[in-house]
Amino acid sequence: MNILHILNGDSTAQSFNDTGLEGDVMVWREVFSEGPLAENVTSGDFWRKRMDWICGNSGESPENYQQNVLNELVHLDEPYEELNLWFEFDLHCQVNMLGVLAYVKQKTDLSSPAIFLISPSAFPGKEHFRGMGELNGEELDYLYDNIRLQLSAMDFVVAREAWEIYISRDAALLENYIGTNSFWGSLHCLKPALEAQLKRLLVNGQGLNYVEQKLLDVYSLGYHSREEMMRVFWDTEKIYGMGDMELDIYLARLKDKRFIE
């Protein structure tokens, strides 16, 4: 069978070679939890705006973006019979997952391929599980054998709704969706991630959203270096799944607003 595994990031890819799973591998290196988004994920304009934003905020070159992100997309144009999506529980991963599902939906009629999701929120014996990058090949095999779910047409309906609401950045619309939607199907990690997104959309009396306020709280506790602030934030806010680039954006905002030095 012609199989493609879509891995969210290089950390998982390092261990994936040690699994016993057959198939090709595509590494998803985008960060849809930040920056400009649009409903049509397959348009050239969508990816041009993404490249401009990533290169402008991370120091990435257009050549590297082409190689690391855009060249990987060609896998999704191939006639695979089965896709396996390996995306974790946090907001970063769940939004990337929604983007992949939107891309696949816009490219196919869903008659083929069969699409499966491996989305762990925990792992046996790992009390502080943060993601699949912590796992070895044998442990990834365990996830494949025990939590892999085939997505249905209804799962794609949920994914489409959630994607459209997410890209709207409308807090009231998102809050209503979270409060009234009673069916999440196989997308069992999506609701907590969207709840985390809602907290990012709301601002307090100081004009800070949840992430900014948490980082300011960390700073107020005496952790002033970038490395210390990120470490303490990650300890309590793993639901956001933020990497260095994303947290740097929030630290820059706090500096611009003169909350931190």
Label the CATH architecture of the largest domain: 3-Layer(aba) Sandwich
CATH topology of the largest domain: Dna Topoisomerase Vi A Subunit, Chain: A, domain 2
Query: Given the helix and strand composition, which structural class is it?
Result: alpha/beta
Query: Helical segment tally?
Result: 11
Low-confidence stretches: none
Descriptive report:
This protein has 261 residues and is an alpha/beta fold. It folds into two domains: 164 residues, Dna Topoisomerase Vi A Subunit, Chain: A, domain 2 (3-Layer(aba) Sandwich), CATH 3.40.1360.10; 59 residues. The protein contains eleven helices and five strands. Helix 4 crosses helix 6, helix 4 crosses helix 8 and helix 7 packs antiparallel against helix 8.
Relevant terms:
261 residues, alpha/beta, Dna Topoisomerase Vi A Subunit, Chain: A, domain 2, 2 domains, 11 helices, 5 strands, 9% strand
In short:
This protein folds into 2 domains: 3-166, Dna Topoisomerase Vi A Subunit, Chain: A, domain 2; 203-261. 50% of the residues lie in helices and 9% in strands.
Task: Present the secondary structure layout.
Blueprint: E1 3-8, H1 10-16, E2 24-28, H2 44-58, H3 62-68, E3 82-86, H4 91-107, E4 114-118, H5 137-147, E5 149-150, H6 153-168, H7 171-180, H8 190-201, H9 210-220, H10 226-236, H11 244-256
Parallel strand pairs: 1-2, 1-3, 3-4
Antiparallel strand pairs: 4-5
Helix pairs in contact: 4-6, 4-8, 7-8, 9-10, 9-11
